[in-house]
Design a protein that fits this description.
Shape of chain A: elongated
Order of helices and strands of chain A: EHEE
Strand order of the largest sheet of chain A: 1-3-2
Oligomer: homododecamer
Largest sheet of chain A: 3 strands, antiparallel
């Protein structure tokens, strides 16, 4: 039997969507053990002065619960 | 870089949907710091004796994670 | 064992979405016994002369079937 | 034959979701003629100091195109 | 006023989907008080050597927050 | 030409999701003639004392209308 | 105040989707008063000997409830 | 690089869904240049005296923006 | 026991959506045996010179697998 | 690098949804190598004489492509 | 009170999805003032000779309406 | 008349989502002729030791059927 939890985070990067994913996982790894996968629920950008200023992803992260 | 978490709550009020939202945020503010926004995922009512007894909202609350 | 039916209604009010919900449940209670809850499927407004004239909700109402 | 256009707006109010709908329709009526109805696509709130500061609705507004 | 939280878990069983639900709730009850209901968001199976090896469910669990 | 109606019910069983489906169809057969199929729209469980107390299914039942 | 009900039917025609809609509404008009509109939820076809034998539509029909 | 806009219209015809699509595109061509495609988002009918009086389609039209 | 496969095709016709469905099924019948039904997943049109040039449907076709 | 294909099947069993999943995977294993997982897209039942005669599942099966 | 409009564009780039987003925003900034954010609704690619020739994104852009 | 098929694949890359798309199309081109476009249905990542190890995309690929 394996039981995992799913938690949702939102992360931004000034550089790219891929980097936003990496930043989000890196930040989450400070408090979550046993992360296995993450699903990209949503992608959006913030715009300033007619240009993309930040890339944002919403991630549903799955991590294993230890007994 | 900003990383936020998204958590879901369900709140009820005998008075209105708007009040259910307010009650839910007020209760959540006891334990969550840095709440920024909440999305109304679902609205429903409980019915007793042919009348609305409670208004319920499901909220996805976003709050900033401090480093 | 409990078996319930789910039926959908649409109700309007000139005043508010909350009132449209109340009006719909009140009208439904004339013919349905044992209503337990209702889910707000949809919210829209009718507009006349550039102003909201009616608030409308679509409700999926659950009511218990008696044996 | 009737042809209508559908346009999407986002409107906020410090008071309630119903008021946000009214404010949005009022602002849209400055530039759009022939509005008939609006569908509530999304509802969310902004939070400041642990309290709801603004109610926001996204509306898909239908208005008749004149020939 | 009642405020509840909704949390998502993923649980597996070698035997059946029903058993995966039971295992997930049993594991969650170690850390969560006041669980009221759970919604089956997703069902999938793992396959090994052309046969189902595990049944997995994703559950959104609602539990009451005590004041 | 065939015309059918679709009606939605919700049924529970203390034993399993399959049994909830069977109970719901059995109860519906008391009042509906000509049932052909049913679609599982939703599955959820009620929890008491940290254990599953009831399995619930929402079913959309299709039955043929006789002329 | 206006309260309407929404009911779902499924209708087929050997000729076309448009005809299936017409047949379904015609059959429904035998028992329902005050029909206002119908939404096409789903369209599918039955196939026999490599050819379309029937066109089927699922319709959600709205009809006004008289007081 | 190609950039296109997507706009939504709603069009009706007394005759058929296909004709409603044609009517909508014809009306839109009066003001839009460079239309490439349209997606049928929604189909519904208006009913009068128990018969279909109008077929309506909602179309998301894509048209190329010239530099 | 019956096991069927579901495969998706996209078909166009210069004449109508119904004809696009017929053309798609006719083409599919060259390689698929045992087709039973098809679900219309999507409908769109191509536009040339401000007029509909092609009607397109996406179909999910179900066909029985022989043992 | 891993590349997998996803294919959809539909399978029935007179006994249970779990058995329908098992039957579908067993049949698919005759022609597919490298199956890893399957997602339950849809569950429905056929009804005869007021009773469930068959349980049906639609499965999206993922299998690894060998180079 | 803030009222914003939401408009949808589609943009392509031969290089990457991130670049398609940037190109689309850059083109939109020629005619739209006050852009705040954009949501990625859809991502697809065009293929030529078995290779990706263009990356395309559909964006829902929100921009503030000035009074 | 044009008839196309739509098939779904899943592809991974250690580097980026864009690369996963490219890898998937490259692998598919070994067996599929006439690929025209691909839609990104889903994006997720695998995580090892608190870091992204693989980027995965699910693609629905459309390719023309030759007569």
């Amino acid at each position: 039997m394996t039981v995992a939890r799913v938690t949702e985070i939102s992360a931004t990067s000034p550089d790219s969507f891929d980097d936003a994913v990496k930043q989000g996982i890196a930040r989450a790894s400070k408090t979550l053990r046993g992360m296995k996968s993450a699903w990209v629920k949503d992608q959006n950008v913030e715009i300033e002065d007619g240009k993309v200023s930040h890339y944002r992803v919403n991630l549903a992260i799955t991590f294993i619960l230890e007994d």
